[in-house]
């Protein structure tokens, strides 16, 4: 019977396709195929096609019965888009129900499968849905269709055949489900959750690893229910039992495979996963380690910076408390290596008198004295460039520096940092820091720290200078008190000494030759004692003496004659090389004589302890200035070069600092220079004034300019130096200070003819300062700028003097002459 049915099916299939063969035959006729081929084709049609099939009208044909196919055939795919092979065809299938009907979206789905684990989903109509239970064998007849790429059968009838035990789920792997093999089959598998989601149709759990697109789908039974697959997290290992399915809305339909489950109970957790996934945890640990390392390095760097700041602050306090530049250098040598790993440090202090940079250094490679305008050597050039530019210079490698040639780098340090030292905008010198043997890059933080340290050093030097000035003033006061005492004693001794000299002269005239030698000695010693007493009296009145024209050569000659017996007793030889022409300067005779005597005594004590006991005193006139040079041998042949005030004790009546101050107040310059390893020299340079010849032939001074004592209160160092230079060129004595408090302290001690005060002062303002000192000075000059023009006009109307910035030398001379005339008028009255 099966053989007859197969023949009937072949006849029906041929009946369906024979008109196609007729069309092909007509095409062959049109193409002029041989008559033999046409005859064979017609004969074949007559034989194969029964006459009744050819002549039976189409309207009277019966519909073909549905094909009975297997579940494997029902789920087969074809074409590039992998569509169901039997889509749209009526078929009959037989299978065993594996699960209860599952509600998806708007209808129920029933999964059936056969013994070979091929399956299919049925979608029966709701009114016709039979009461099916797992294990029922059914026969379903209907049309094959698709749902999101999945073949399904929409049965017209479903007939229960028999009931057996429910089929056991097929154990598969995620890779097995990523194909069409088990579509519609009840399966079970274990996998790891890789994610979770939900959509309008239900809840989703993504399982497996890689790009298999495998998920677990639980459809919702009601639209208002919440998520059902809760309590799971990524990384959990689960066991899923459900129907292998697919949901792919776009061709090709070979993706998005899933396991369809009826309830959350179909998913069981076999092993809980990590709360934090290992890759995430590893990344977090690496990130935490990186952050901890960054924090550790940062804390270590901050700790180092804090340590450096403590060292820097401590070093700054030590520098401020130092009493000399040598002590500052010693403290830098002890503490700076721990601060910047430097191997050497040097200080170059600006000497305003010689206009050079005097070296206070710690290494043999440093230079001792530098002329900023004409430096000698590569290191000196670099230091001079730093001083002239007022800017920090960092040279990490001297071999690549612009100031060093290749042959100069043999003895030079490897890296150098040069820092200008500022004190209240006044450049005090240069700080040198170097590394001898290794290359070193000076960072911004290190440069800022060294600039801060250099400014503290400059402030310390400024404080030392001010302290030295106060000590000099205090010493002057003590000398004045001592001089007053000496004056009283000398006045008491003058009359007895004169009487001794008179009596000795009278006895010498009476006795003849009897005691001639003894009486002459008494007379000589008495006259010498009188001269000494007279000189002591003149020393006592130094501060009260007025400036007057004096012959510097005459003063030197008198001092040489006065000290000749002492030098002879000590074996010191004096070579006098004074100029023949008189050197007339304007100043205080007592002060000039004190300075010269102090230098001669200092040279005498140094020469007394030297091998070559020769002192040379010379004077010369050049360009309206007189230069006095006192050359003497040093005590020790290995003394340091280019001496400064620190090389001499100033064992005379005054210290060398006081001597420099007195000479500079007279508009001159004072220098201490070492000419050779065993020889040094004092240089005094003063301006000379012109003299006119009178009718009698005597050389006298006429119309001599009166010297003024001027106090300059100006915080700006540049303006202060300009005023000192201008007044010094006139021959005036100048005392510069930076604040009104210092000015009040000095006015209490000294008498000033004129005070020049700036409008802008730190601390006490100029109005209060003017009220306190105006009655004690001959003239008060207010130094203003463009922003204080109204103040200047108001002060000028109150019989004061006003000097505008920038200072014009003509205006300054005019004000000085007015003060001179006013002072002379007061003296005459």
Describe this protein's structure.
It is built from 18 helices and 36 strands. Helices cover 40% and strands 26% of the residues. Helix 9 (444-511) packs antiparallel against helix 10 (516-540). The longest helix has 68 residues, at 444-511. It has a 6-stranded antiparallel sheet, with helices on both faces. A 5-stranded mixed beta barrel has the order 4-6-7-9-8. The chain has a 5-stranded mixed beta barrel with strand order 11-12-13-15-14. With 829 residues, the protein is α+β, with helices and mostly antiparallel strands.
Individual helix count: 18
What is the terminal-to-terminal distance? 167 Å
Query: Strand order within the widest sheet?
Result: 19-18-17-22-21-20
Mean pLDDT, rounded to whole units?
77
Helix content: 25-40%
* Low-pLDDT regions: 12-35, 49-59, 637-653, 691-705
Radius of gyration based on Cα positions: 60 Å
| Principal-axis shape | rod-shaped
Estimate the strand proportion.
25-35%
Biggest sheet record: 6 strands, antiparallel
Q: Which class do the helix and strand fractions yield?
A: alpha+beta
Count of strand segments:
36
Layout of secondary structure:
Blueprint: H1 2-30, H2 35-48, H3 51-55, E1 67-68, H4 71-74, E2 77-78, E3 83-84, E4 90-97, E5 102-104, E6 107-113, E7 119-122, E8 136-147, E9 150-163, E10 170-171, H5 174-177, E11 186-198, E12 202-207, E13 214-219, E14 237-246, E15 257-260, E16 267-271, H6 278-320, H7 325-340, E17 344-351, E18 356-361, E19 369-370, H8 378-389, E20 393-395, E21 415-423, E22 426-435, H9 444-511, H10 516-540, E23 548-551, H11 552-570, E24 573-577, E25 584-587, H12 589-608, E26 614-622, E27 625-633, H13 656-665, E28 669-676, E29 679-687, E30 692-693, E31 699-700, E32 709-713, H14 717-730, E33 733-737, H15 740-747, E34 754-758, H16 766-773, E35 779-784, H17 789-797, E36 801-804, H18 809-828
Parallel strand pairs: 1-4, 7-9, 10-11, 13-15, 24-26, 32-33, 32-34, 34-35, 35-36
Antiparallel strand pairs: 2-3, 4-6, 4-8, 5-6, 6-7, 8-9, 11-12, 11-14, 12-13, 14-15, 14-16, 17-18, 17-22, 18-19, 20-21, 21-22, 23-25, 26-27, 27-29, 28-29, 30-31
């Amino acid at each position: 019977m099966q053989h007859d049915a197969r023949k009937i099916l072949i006849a029906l299939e041929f009946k369906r396709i024979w008109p196609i063969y007729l069309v092909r035959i007509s095409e062959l006729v049109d193409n002029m195929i041989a008559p033999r081929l046409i005859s064979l084709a017609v004969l074949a049609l007559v034989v194969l096609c029964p006459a009744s099939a050819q002549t039976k009208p189409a309207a009277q044909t019966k519909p073909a019965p549905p094909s009975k196919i297997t579940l494997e055939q029902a789920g087969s795919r074809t074409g590039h888009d992998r569509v169901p092979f039997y889509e749209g065809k009526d078929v009959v299938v037989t299978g065993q129900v594996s699960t209860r009907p599952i509600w998806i979206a708007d209808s129920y789905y029933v999964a059936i499968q056969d013994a070979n684990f091929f399956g299919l989903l049925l979608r029966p109509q709701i009114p016709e849905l039979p009461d099916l239970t797992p294990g029922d064998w059914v026969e379903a007849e209907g049309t094959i269709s698709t749902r999101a790429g999945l073949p399904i059968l929409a049965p017209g009838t479903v007939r229960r055949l028999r009931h057996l035990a429910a089929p056991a789920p097929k154990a598969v792997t995620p890779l097995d489900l990523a194909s069409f093999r088990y579509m519609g089959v009840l399966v079970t598998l274990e996998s790891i959750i890789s994610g979770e989601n939900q959509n309008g149709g239900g809840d989703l759990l993504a399982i497996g690893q890689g790009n298999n697109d495998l998920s677990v789908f639980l459809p919702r039974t009601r639209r208002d229910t919440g998520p059902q697959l809760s309590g799971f997290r990524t990384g959990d290992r689960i066991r899923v039992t459900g129907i292998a399915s697919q949901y792919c809305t776009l061709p090709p339909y070979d993706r998005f495979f899933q396991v369809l489950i009826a309830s959350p109970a179909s998913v069981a957790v076999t092993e809980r996963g990590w709360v934090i996934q290992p890759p995430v945890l590893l990344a977090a640990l690496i990130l935490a380690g990186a952050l901890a390392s960054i924090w550790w390095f940062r804390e270590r760097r901050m700790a180092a910076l804090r340590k450096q700041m403590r060292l820097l602050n401590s070093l700054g306090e030590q520098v401020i408390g130092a009493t000399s530049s040598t002590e500052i250098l010693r403290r830098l040598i002890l503490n700076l290596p721990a601060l910047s790993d430097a191997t050497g440090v040097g200080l170059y202090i600006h000497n305003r008198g010689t206009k050079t940079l005097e070296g206070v250094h710690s290494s043999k490679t440093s230079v001792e004295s530098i002329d900023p305008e004409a430096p000698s050597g590569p290191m000196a050039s670099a230091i001079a460039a730093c001083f002239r530019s007022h800017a920090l210079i960092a040279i990490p490698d001297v071999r690549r520096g612009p100031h060093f040639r290749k042959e100069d780098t043999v003895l030079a340090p490897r890296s150098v940092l040069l820092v200008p030292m500022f004190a209240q905008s006044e450049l005090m010198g240069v700080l040198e820091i170097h590394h001898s043997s290794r290359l070193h890059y000076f960072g911004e933080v290190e440069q800022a720290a060294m600039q801060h340290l250099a400014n503290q050093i400059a402030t310390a030097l400024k404080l030392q200078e001010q302290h030295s000035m106060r000590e000099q003033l205090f010493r002057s006061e003590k000398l004045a008190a001592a001089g007053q005492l000496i004056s009283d004693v000398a006045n008491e001794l003058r009359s007895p000494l004169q009487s001794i000299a008179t009596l000795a002269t009278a006895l010498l005239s009476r006795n003849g030759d009897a005691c001639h030698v003894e009486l002459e000695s008494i007379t000589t010693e008495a006259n010498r004692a009188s001269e000494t007493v007279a000189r002591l009296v003149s020393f006592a009145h130094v501060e009260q003496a007025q400036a007057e024209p004096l012959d510097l050569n005459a003063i030197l000659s008198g001092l040489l004659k006065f000290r000749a017996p002492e030098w002879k007793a000590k074996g010191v030889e004096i070579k006098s090389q004074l100029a023949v022409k008189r050197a007339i300067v304007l100043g205080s005779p007592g002060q000039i004589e004190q300075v010269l005597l102090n230098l001669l005594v200092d040279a005498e004590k140094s020469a007394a302890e030297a091998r070559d006991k020769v002192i040379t005193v010379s004077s010369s006139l050049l360009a309206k200035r007189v230069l006095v040079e006192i050359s003497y041998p040093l005590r020790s042949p290995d003394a340091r070069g280019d001496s400064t005030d620190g090389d001499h004790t100033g064992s005379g009546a005054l210290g060398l600092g006081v001597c420099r101050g007195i000479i500079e107040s007279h508009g001159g310059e004072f220098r201490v220079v070492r000419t050779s390893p065993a020889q040094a020299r004092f240089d005094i340079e003063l301006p000379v004034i012109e003299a006119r010849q009178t009718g009698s032939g005597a050389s006298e001074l006429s119309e001599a300019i009166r010297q003024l004592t001027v106090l300059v209160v100006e915080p700006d160092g540049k303006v202060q130096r300009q005023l000192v230079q201008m007044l010094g060129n006139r021959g005036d004595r100048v005392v510069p200070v930076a604040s009104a408090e210092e000015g009040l302290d000095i006015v209490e001690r000294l008498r000033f003819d004129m005070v020049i005060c700036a409008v802008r002062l730190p601390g006490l303002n100029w109005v209060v300062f003017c009220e306190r000192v105006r009655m004690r000075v001959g003239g008060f000059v207010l130094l203003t700028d463009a922003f204080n023009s109204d103040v200047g006009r108001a002060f000028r109307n109150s019989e004061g003097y006003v000097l505008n910035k920038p200072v014009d030398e003509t205006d300054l001379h005019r004000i000085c002459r007015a003060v001179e005339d006013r002072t002379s008028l007061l003296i005459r009255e």
